[in-house]
Amino acid sequence: MPIALFRIDDRLIHGQVVVGWGQPLELGFIVLVDDDVANSEWEQELYRLGVPPEMSVHFLTVDDAVPRLAEFERLPSPGILLVGDIGTMQRLVTATHGQVRSVNVGGVHHAPGRTGRLRYVFLTPAEEDGLKNMAAQGVDVTAQDVPGARPVPLAELLTSSSAA
Asked: Are 89 and 78 in contact (CB under 8 A)?
């Protein structure tokens, strides 16, 4: 089964990912791509606590994830690849040369310098450029917090305005 979802969510592994997306997609695994978490046993253990025992979780750096994407695509159950920020996903998209065909912006929360676009997406100009860059590489970029919500296309996301 393929990786069912390539998701940007700054909270990484949490209930909305594990239950909200995991159950309807019948996920068997999560690939968390984060250079810092991949090098921290302590952080990995914390994230494992939020994952049910029947779901495996893999912690990888961007450099380690790129050659393993084909391996994950061959697993018998679908999975999700999760990153915590737009820059990490942009690095992954660029390094995989077309393997990532769609990206879900699921949660980029308020921080200084970010403008509210949706209630769950706040972006800096550099982050907006990163999303545009992915789209220019042929990636379908949409924002969607939960499976039942309407996917918001990138052009609409970038022109939306939400109060903080």
From this structure: no
